[in-house]
Write a structure and sequence with these properties.
Blueprint lengths: L1 H23 L25 H4 L19 E4 L4 E6 L2 E5 L9 E11 L3 E10 L2 H9 L15 E15 L9 E16 L17 H4 L4 E14 L2 E11 L7 E14 L2 E11 L9 E13 L14
Antiparallel strand pairs: 1-2, 1-12, 2-3, 3-4, 4-5, 5-6, 6-7, 7-8, 8-9, 9-10, 10-11, 11-12
């Protein structure tokens, strides 16, 4: 009886220690307003929390308020290439536009509530001077006519972005986001280096941007944007812009963009889409002009085995 009592007492003390350790251990479970949270059962055996592994930057477009995490990002031909710096900062540039319009941008995330609402600021500095030089060389009269002097202008831009995220209940599934709605307002200023001010460009897409690409002027746009998850190998990105460019024949114009992004490997995607521009611009005959687009992106960053947005094995 004495030995049995000792064994029972020992088992009781051991159970108490285990319960106390479990009580002190951080438990991740669903909480109202924290749809990115998760419980331990979903991540048992993985060794690393799902939240740390999930490549959420593969859903969010650069048009959203989302800021790429530290040491993650992407290289793209036509979309903006991004690098996460940490402390809610990322930097970006556009490789495909570099020969025509060198640009550097920095996005800072101001606030985030429950992983569902994101507010950030995006600051850019660029110039279209190389584009005008190439247009002059190849005789593109819609941008610069023979003998016309080129304006040397730097464009400073600021965009205030807000994104709302929809995600699934992590106690029933992975808890990953599947839809992101972004609203933004952007303001741009042209800072002239010389005193030349060029006429508005006579071509769609460039025309609404003439005030800051070719002279010391101002323009702005309002944007609505959606990023969505279709399945493990496909996401879609679509949005519209209202351009407001004082001084043009039609100061208000519209622009739509859309693309389907196909992941051919876990870190490589091909996008097909286009741009649709609508406006009544000086020297431009058609009111509506479509432009097709094909892009390739490579994502880099932390690679782990994780079932998540695309059920991919990194």
């Amino acid at each position: 009886m004495r030995y049995r009592a000792i064994v029972i007492l020992f088992c009781f003390m051991l159970s108490a220690l285990v319960v106390d350790a479990q009580r002190k251990k951080k438990v991740y479970s669903y909480q109202e307003g924290y749809e990115y949270s998760y419980n331990r059962n979903l991540d048992s055996g993985k060794g690393t929390k799902r939240l740390d592994l999930y490549r959420d930057d593969m859903l969010y477009h650069w048009e959203s308020a989302y800021v790429t995490p530290k040491d993650r990002g992407n290289y793209s031909l036509l979309k903006y290439s991004r690098w996460g710096l940490g402390n809610n900062w990322e930097i970006s540039t556009n490789i495909g536009e570099a020969a025509f319009r060198p640009i550097i941008g920095g996005k800072y995330q101001w606030a985030q509530w429950g992983k569902l609402n994101i507010i950030s600021s995006y600051l850019t500095l660029s110039t279209f001077y190389p584009g005008m030089t190439l247009a002059e060389k190849f005789g593109i009269d819609e941008i610069i006519k023979p003998g016309e002097e080129k304006a040397q202008v730097c464009e400073l831009g600021h965009e205030l972005l807000y994104s709302h995220v929809w995600s699934s209940d992590p106690n029933c599934s992975t808890g990953n986001p599947y839809l992101v709605l972004t609203l933004s307002m952007a303001n741009y200023w042209g800072i002239g280096i010389n005193e030349v001010e060029m006429r508005p460009f006579a071509c769609h897409v460039l025309a609404p941007r003439s005030n800051t690409y070719g002279k010391s002027g101002y323009r702005m746009h309002l944007k609505g944007w959606v990023d969505g998850y279709a399945n493990k190998w496909l996401t879609y990105h679509v949005g519209g812009y209202i351009h407001i460019t004082p001084g043009l024949k039609s100061p208000v114009s519209l622009e739509g963009r859309g693309e389907a992004e196909f992941f051919i490997t876990p870190i490589c995607s091909v996008s097909f889409g286009g741009i649709l521009s609508f406006g009544y611009f000086e020297g431009v005959k058609p009111l509506l002009m479509p432009f097709p687009m094909v892009d390739v992106s490579f994502y880099f960053g932390k690679k782990q085995s994780v079932a998540g947005l695309f059920d991919l094995k990194f």
